[in-house]
Amino acid sequence: MHKTKLFKLIKSLSKKEFNQLEAYIDSPFFLKKNKNPLKLYLALAAYAPKFDSNELTKEVIFKAVYPNVNYNDGKMRNLLSRTVKIVDNYLLYLDNEEDEFGRDKRLSEVYNKRNIESEFFNYSRRLLAELEKVEQKDTAYYFNKFSLEKELYFHIENNRKNSNELLKNTIYNFQNYLGLEQAIFLLEITNKKQMFKDSIDLPTIRLSKEIVGDNLNLLLLNQINQLLIKKDIHLYIRIIADFESNINKLGDKDSMNIYTAIQNFGVREVNKNFKIYGPILFKVYQIGLVNNMLLLNGVLIVTSYLNIVIVGLKLENFEWVASFINDYEHLLPPKNAESIKQYSLCNYFFITGEHQKVIEITNSNRFNDIKTFRLISAKTFQIRSIFHLLETDISFYKLLLNKCAAFDKYIEREKSLLKNRKIRYKKFTTLLRKMAHAIKNDKWNAKKKKILKTELKNEKNIRFRDWFLERLNE
Known about the structure:
Elements lengths: L4 H7 L3 H11 L2 H4 L4 H10 L12 H8 L7 H26 L1 H14 L3 H16 L6 H16 L8 H34 L19 H15 L2 H14 L5 H19 L3 H17 L4 E2 L2 E2 L1 H13 L3 H10 L9 H15 L3 H10 L7 H19 L6 H17 L5 H22 L5 H13 L6 H9 L1
Antiparallel strand pairs: 1-2
Helix pairs in contact: 1-6, 4-5, 4-6, 7-8, 8-9, 9-10, 10-11, 11-12, 11-13, 12-13, 13-14, 14-15, 15-16, 15-17, 16-17, 17-18, 17-19, 18-19, 19-20, 20-21, 21-22, 22-23
């Protein structure tokens, strides 16, 4: 039952929407010939709101709908198919209710098809008047204006006195719509090629040379597309400033498109030059937090949460990061919020030198509900923290060797890791052991550090090279 299309549709509904669905299915329009979809709904309702019971099977639901009939898979599939059609219509109904403008626009089109001219003209003109009040002129705005004016211009009963002006407006809005769509499409293609190193030779889409009117959205999009080509730091800073000061003038979808592009550019560039782009990206993240642009369906994107922690720590904004980790935990996905928070605290305490706390966190958390590379990272935080403590307390020597041995076994068994990455981690523990041995045998001196530093410089494939250099340069 859990793998059926109907189940997926039901799971997508909010509690309120699911409860309203009963009244929708109970309509005589749907139940005139067959009341079984309502019985099916009531059987499913017994497992609401989580729908995660192992008892929720096709056989159990079938028995609730057809108590005196032996299970028949064909009959069950027909019932599910019939109910899916009703739920599909219900989803369209919900969407229609949320989009009042779109509903009225479709209604005007229906009036036009049915030759109800008076109502067609009334609805069209009223909708155009509503659009004139809109401040956030996005693609939907220009498309709606264009399509409404086009229908009016070509209608047989159109007042010819105003035809030229109407046609000019129609063309103007069509050009704006095309310009925005072109800029957004170009941005999406460029991002895709940069993110996934797309080798497909796509046709060239030329950037709009002129901005029609004073379209802020198109101005920003075109500037971003220029930025992706030129990679001009001054243009990037100007785009961020313009976006932040005009964010309330943009539609939700368009502001999110622009913000995502700004953020993605910063993330790519910060890895090349943190000194220049780190502070800028940190500001971009703060803009995103203030304007709820790092949320997806009300949930904070995990990657963004962790990136904010990393960038903030590199900038040494320790107090701010500590507050952020705790203040935004409640917005993380519930299934792994605690692990993500504890992982972030590992990062925080490691950077701030509180290595005993890193060990305490990693000993009390298995991190099984986070991605493998983060679990590996948590283990390396622990091992490196033990080494830091070993530098002043030789009693940590045996613990370090045991942890390195356990880590080596874990890396060797982890099937998701590529061979090259396994080698990098193996060389990490090998060099760490050499350093630990030197400390244990009271040979941790300038001569030994110089030998190990030379070894490190000749090694091209090792994890945490910069961290090792810091230890060897002390």
